[in-house]
């Protein structure tokens, strides 16, 4: 069995986020600090992704002052508590092939030191020295103590309500770091 470690290339990887509220949505990007995927005989077997929460950007708010205020609010304890928790992590625990090049991944997602099991589908393009994963992860923010204007915790929010789920659309590129032969 050949085991290969693929290191995430942060500069060639992208995570787009979308958060929705009654009156519309906001979107932006967030960066990957580092991570890797383990492949056994060309198939993903595990991995780890570390997200740098301090890189969160808002793309749909073009006024600089409003954008800075919004970014400060996302960094605050109402949302991601970036000063206390500068990273979020996903540790991939299991991978099942659904069809050719499509996999269902499950793993522990940790945000603000709170961990929950998540699952999502990803398309994998695999060349000998590079893989690309793309897909969408939908997260219930209230499970991670992000309750600001959530209808689960506050009443009479009217059109200020923010929906609990937010989306992370990702395209991640990783390059082969090394290869080991094992006798299993």
Per-chain topology:
Layout: E1 2-8, E2 14-21, E3 24-40, E4 43-58, H1 64-75, E5 87-99, E6 102-111, E7 114-126, E8 130-140, E9 162-181
Antiparallel strand pairs: 1-3, 1-9, 2-3, 2-9, 3-4, 4-5, 5-6, 6-7, 7-8, 8-9
Question: What would you note in describing this structure?
Answer:
Residues 5-175 form the Lipid/polyisoprenoid-binding YceI-like domain. There is one protein chain. The chain is mainly β and 184 residues long. The chain has one domain (2-181): Beta Barrel (Lipocalin). The chain has one helix and nine strands. The protein has one helix at residues 64-75; strands spanning 2-8, 14-21, 24-40, 43-58, 87-99, 102-111, 114-126, 130-140, 162-181. Strands 1, 2, 3, 4, 5, 6, 7, 8 and 9 form a nine-stranded antiparallel β-sheet that branches. It is elongated, with a radius of gyration of 18 Å. The protein starts with a strand and ends with a strand. The model is unreliable at 150-154 and 179-184 (pLDDT under 50).
Helices and strands: which structural class? mainly beta
Rg over C-alpha atoms, rounded to the nearest angstrom: 18 Å
Q: For the report, how would you describe the main beta sheet?
A: 9 strands, antiparallel
User: Number of domains in the coordinates?
Assistant: 1
What would the CATH topology be?
Lipocalin
CATH homologous superfamily caption: Lipid/polyisoprenoid-binding, YceI-like
Pfam families: YceI
Organism: Flavobacterium pectinovorum
Protein name: Lipid-binding protein
